[in-house]
Design brief:
Chains A, B: Pfam families: DHQ_synthase, DHQS_C. Chains A, B: GO terms for molecular function: 3-dehydroquinate synthase activity; metal ion binding; nucleotide binding. Two copies of one chain form a homodimer. Chain A is of the alpha/beta class and about 375 residues long. In chain A, about 45% of the residues lie in helices and about 20% in strands.
């Protein structure tokens, strides 16, 4: 079965298709959405995903008459740089891409962000199609946030550029390493925690199936995760208000990523610890104990880390938080859960409470 | 007097203020438009304009409580590069600019394009204010097209990012070299030729005043030039249709710029020759002879070149035209005048006619 949902953004609305084997059917989706056959399209992928799926995708597209240029960048966050961005623009120019061309991201979040920023900028914006190959990318495939990194800060150079459509082939998820599976589930669980209590309960009940990559369970989780994000983004496309709730767990999470050595924590692992921290802050500010217990239980079942390794220096974590771009005009924006499936954005959370929480996150025993 | 016009783009609408001494009154305009005093703003200027006006602008803004960071880049097209773009992002990060910050372009078209692309990209888009200091910049200050160059093509990396407002201080134009004055008038005359017969007649009658930098005449010409562009852009913000008429003279003009050695032709000079070429094409396709005569007379009065220097190789010019991004899906988009103040966009102009026109442009005697 193919699940379909629409990200409702007026004239920039677009569908997300989720199902098994969609890569093989890519040409019909490209046709349906009017991707040009007269202008070349460019597939951007990385050195991990390229060997697995690039040739197959090129073949099905070429067999239907599409002109295909491909670019393979090194796998990893290092490719989200202005230097690689410029190389892709060069490739697009050399490949003859024009204003009617489409850029296709085949890969995870790094490829989506990088290729998306190329699509946003090339000739001041061309069409963009996402073919995510990780669970985590369900998050970045909704909302059009694209960016590259600057040596001083992540995602600081970017744009809002919505794709024409998203094609999620569940088969491409079968080869994901377990750590990437868990990291992807982290954002899916986050979507439940901010918006959808029933989906959190479903995750609680179906975590084993998810970890075993059961296609139907995965398809459902991606559908729900994308659905929550789509609902939020529809209200607030350019992150001026409601969209801030998507940062649950990210204030501490980003700081941990900044402080951790390369590879120590994935993004999903960092925000897992961050979400536990947010639950602690929530309870301390009056939310029911349940908020902490359920958050702790679901994340724990998934095998994601729920404690902060002791060697993390609290001062360093606090300093990293102060440099994060979520700080606007000197005040801190913090997403605080008030119940499972419900959060509020507060700007009055004392730094002392956050510091105390970071300390509590390091304790072996469960908090409280 | 301060002339004011609005670029009507729905929620992205913005005003252009044109008058003498507006730089000294900048703070009140910044206040009026809600530029943040809590978040630093960054002024981007170049090594020619900086020494003339930067300190004065910094002083009036700081005196009113704005936090000001400044960045001075080398004057010239060379600064419209990804490398300088990255330096400006670094400067913005080091200066503590956040999502509520504003980027201010103080300078000509290069600075507007460069600073505008920084504003479009920094933290996925911050506010942007333009303070143009050339006549030519009246063109780029309307419509939100911002970009940097790639070694293989001009303006290929960019965005559509509308300013919050534009502040045109006529006093800053008094020090313009005569060649820059003429080049700026070239785009103003173009706006008349595509849209406003009466303004072309006014230019014909008032060219001496314009060349003498009479403030009232200049203010009127900028008001009319911006007005035409605003009318066109309001209908077609992202260059999908009508906006193509703004490319009158640019098909040949861009090719001449690409072929010419550095500094041989300014943009305004190149499109002046290009507009003569367009008039020739127009008459050959059935427009009244008047179209050529008036175009020739007004551009001639301004001192702009109306003939192509003989050493330009016709083959090279034709090849350069084929690489221009105005070619979509293999067909050529050419803006052809049908009367003074009226043009049509045609995609059926034979390359042979354009080649013949390039040859005619080299002839010493007036054509026909």
């Amino acid at each position: 079965m193919v699940r379909e949902l629409t990200v409702a953004l007026g004239e920039r609305s677009y569908p997300i298709y989720i199902g098994e084997g969609l890569l093989q059917e890519a040409a019909s989706y490209f046709d349906k959405h009017g991707v040009s056959k007269k202008s070349p399209l460019m597939i951007v992928t990385d050195s991990h995903i390229g060997p697995l799926y690039l040739e197959a995708l090129e073949n099905v597209l070429r067999a239907s008459g599409f002109q295909v240029v491909s670019a393979v960048v090194p796998a990893g966050e290092g490719s989200k740089s202005l230097a690689v961005f410029e190389q892709l623009v060069t490739k697009a120019l050399e490949g003859g891409l024009d204003r009617k061309s489409t850029i296709v991201a085949l890969g995870g979040g790094v490829i989506g962000d990088l290729a998306g920023y190329v699509a946003a900028s090339y000739m001041r914006g061309v069409r963009f199609v996402q073919i995510p190959t990780t669970i985590l990318a369900h998050d970045s495939s909704v909302g059009g946030k694209v960016a590259v990194n600057h040596p001083l800060a992540k995602n600081i150079i970017g744009a809002f550029h919505q794709p024409a459509f998203v094609l999620y082939d569940l088969n491409t998820l079968q080869s994901l390493p377990p750590r990437d599976v868990r990291s992807g589930l982290s954002e899916a669980i986050k979507h439940g925690l901010i918006w959808d209590e029933a989906f959190v309960a479903w995750c609680d009940d179906n975590m084993e199936k998810l970890l075993a990559l059961d296609p139907d369970a995965l398809g459902y989780a991606l559908f729900k995760g994308c659905g929550v994000k789509a609902a939020v983004v529809s209200v607030d496309e350019t992150e001026n208000g409601l969209r801030a709730i998507l940062n649950l767990g990210h204030t501490i999470g980003h700081a941990l990523e900044a402080v951790a050595g390369y590879g120590e924590l994935t993004h999903g692992e960092a925000i897992s610890i961050g979400m536990i921290g947010s639950a602690i802050v929530g309870v301390k500010l009056g939310a029911p104990q349940e908020v902490y217990k359920v958050t702790r239980r679901v994340l724990g079942k998934s095998g994601l880390p729920v404690r902060l390794p002791e060697h993390f220096d609290t001062d360093a974590v606090m300093r990293a938080m102060m440099h994060d771009k979520k700080f606007t005009e000197g005040s801190i924006v913090y997403v605080v859960p008030t119940a499972i499936g419900k959060v509020e954005v507060r700007s009055d959370v004392p730094a002392s409470l956050v510091r105390e929480t970071v300390e509590l996150l390091k304790q072996e025993a469960d908090w409280q």
